[in-house]
Amino acid sequence: MASFIPLILVFVIMYFLMIRPQQKRMKEHRAMVEAVKKGDEVITQGGIIGKVVGVRDGEVEVEIATGVKVRVIKSTISSVVVRSAPVAANS
């Protein structure tokens, strides 16, 4: 039994130093991707920078140049560079 204590200790340390921070980063990325909206400027994992012009289930339409739009899967967005201002409700 005493020989298993160091092995268990290694797994506990590995969980807190490696697995838990990775899960936290994944959760933050998922929240960021779900919050992407029209007007945001994004960077994809492929390095493409563009402005979001449409959001659908699971994908985003990104304008990378004037008149050039590409459809990108939401999960491939690596970061949001510029968040658009909230749209005011029309009264």
Automatic annotation (TrEMBL):
It is found in: Cell membrane. Pfam families: YajC (PF02699). The SecYEG-SecDF-YajC-YidC holo-translocon (HTL) protein secretase/insertase is a supercomplex required for protein secretion, insertion of proteins into membranes, and assembly of membrane protein complexes. While the SecYEG complex is essential for assembly of a number of proteins and complexes, the SecDF-YajC-YidC subcomplex facilitates these functions. InterPro entries: Preprotein_translocase_YajC. The gene is yajC. SMART domains: YajC (SM01323). Its main location: membrane. Keywords: Cell membrane, Membrane, Protein transport, Translocation, Transmembrane, Transmembrane helix, Transport. This is Sec translocon accessory complex subunit YajC.
